[in-house]
Amino acid sequence: MPASPSDPPPITVRAGQATTLDLGGGADLIIPPGAMTAGAKVHATYAGRPAGTWDGIRPAAAPVQLISDPPDAIHGLLILEFPVPKPPQGVDPSSVYGISTYDQSTGAWTPYASIYDAARGMVVAQIPHFSWWNPFSWDWAGIAARVNQDVGQVVGRREGAASCTSSAPSWVGQLAGVVNDADVAVRSCAQSQGDVLDVELVNNRPYGMVLKYGTSVKWGWHDTGSTAQAKAADALADKTLGPNELYLPPLSRASVGIFATKPGSNTMFQIGPTVGTEFVDFLEDAADYLDETPLPDAVSCVTMLSQWSIDLSPSAIRDNIVAAGGCMETAYLKLVASGALDKAKVDQLSATLSALKSASMVGQAWSIEGDVWQLADLWADQVVVGSAGSLGNGFSVYAKATPYTPPPAPSTSPVNHPATTAPANPAPPSAPPNPAPTTQAPPPAPSAPPAPSTYPETVGGPTHTWTNYTNAGGTEGPTVPSFSTVQIACKLTGFKVADGNTWWYRIASPGWDGNFYASADAFYNNGQTSGPLHGTPFVDNAIPYC
């Protein structure tokens, strides 16, 4: 704790003019005309300060207690200002300094709304009451330690399997990306609720994600958090969603009920982190901002918040959070104007975002005021949802095509001839009549050969196969040896490989049995069976969609 100045002598409030109490060390209390009853006495003392807790802040000078005699003499806002050291070059002072007051009900020093006067090097607040006050600086080292501890507790954590008790409805032909393996980002299984496809989901990662519906759904549901902080995060994330979206909270369960889709259609349900989920994760893990904070109206921010997070670099994630925070800060200020939120909470958010904005990169981490935050580790294994129609961590639903029913054949009922009895004395046979000319029926036209059920394709090198084509993961299957030809069942889009190809094949040959996928980029796709792959097509267009 910084050293305390001597207690200043008390002052008497003068009528019709400003009165100033010199608090020592360059700090002042300024009483505007009419803000206190004339003749009231004001005392200040540094003795007997409460210990209290300093969560995320540390005192920049000794706390001072302000006392009014009589206690009810305050009728307006008073100006309290403290000198603070000059911040480092290039650092926004609002991310460094503030003024706090002691909250007797919680035993904590709490930030209060303040501004930084750069011309005088002072932090200034307009206060409505007397109590214990002091200038503070944000304790970025302490915040970083808490963040890194919190992140360390969840990075690497995984959830149990999704649970289903029946099979998918009969109209479902194939489900791609519905995988319950322990290492996938979103574990899933499918069952039926009548004719509705019920896909049970488990977010198997410590960061939030969004499911975007590819068609009409009967329901979309997610677990709510077990703590007040988690519940508040879920509620805020729900406010950031666009139409036809479902939030998947970190390490929790969700479910979506899908109506029967058009026969022969393949419908995609994309899953991945968004700008909004990154912002909510940041608030929950770093800003300590969500408890008991009213929910803002985020309508004006939804378009930005619902964008997929495409760039996974720590600097891009930082920029996403800062941009989202800037928009949401405006929404929070509307709550301040309505009296529903203390402006100090918004100042706290502003300071944290300002510090984050100026953060430098140290490997995969952020360095704020010289302290390393490992928050970027949360998103270290994100799967990108690209603009080329990839699923990210999602799934697709293929509806069976309507079976072909042939038209009824023409009637071939036999002609009934009347029965006859041979005469007792038959007449001699007459010469047979000339037979009527006949026309021979043309031979039936040859029917078109049936479409092949599989298609041969040849790889140009050793080719890995996977159960989850959306992220080139799940369970690894047998490797296709170089220049081998395998039978392909169908094609679909999934994980984008290095050259931008998003096409994948489902391999029907024995050993793969339709359970494993390979990137179409590894195949010649043009009938070649040897030679370089450079310049060959991304996909064979003759292969049908899955």
Q: Keyphrases for this structure?
A:
546 residues; alpha+beta; Chondroitinase Ac, Chain A, domain 3; 5-stranded antiparallel β-sheet; 6 helices; 28% strand
Describe the structure.
The chain is of the alpha+beta class. The chain folds into 3 domains: 128 residues, Chondroitinase Ac, Chain A, domain 3 (Sandwich); 220 residues, no CATH class; 68 residues. The chain is built from 6 helices and 30 strands. The strands form 7 sheets. Strands 1, 4, 5, 6, 8, 9 and 12 form a 7-stranded antiparallel beta sheet that branches. Strands 2-3-7-11-10 form a 5-stranded antiparallel beta sheet, with no helix packed on it. A 5-stranded antiparallel beta sheet has the order 13-24-20-16-18. A hairpin with a 2-residue loop joins strand 21 and strand 22. Helix 2 packs antiparallel against helix 3, helix 3 crosses helix 5 and helix 5 packs antiparallel against helix 6. It is elongated and about 100 Å long. About 7% of the residues have low confidence.
Rg measurement, Å: 37 Å
- SS-based class: alpha+beta
**Assembly category:** single chain
Largest sheet: 7 strands, antiparallel
Uncertain stretches of 5 or more adjacent residues: 409-443, 445-449
**Shape label:** elongated
Number of helices: 6
Average of per-residue pLDDT values: 81
Report the span from N to C terminus: 68 Å
How many domains make up the 3D coordinates? 3
Give the helix level as a range of percent: 10-25%
Strand fraction equals 25-35%
Strand element count = 30
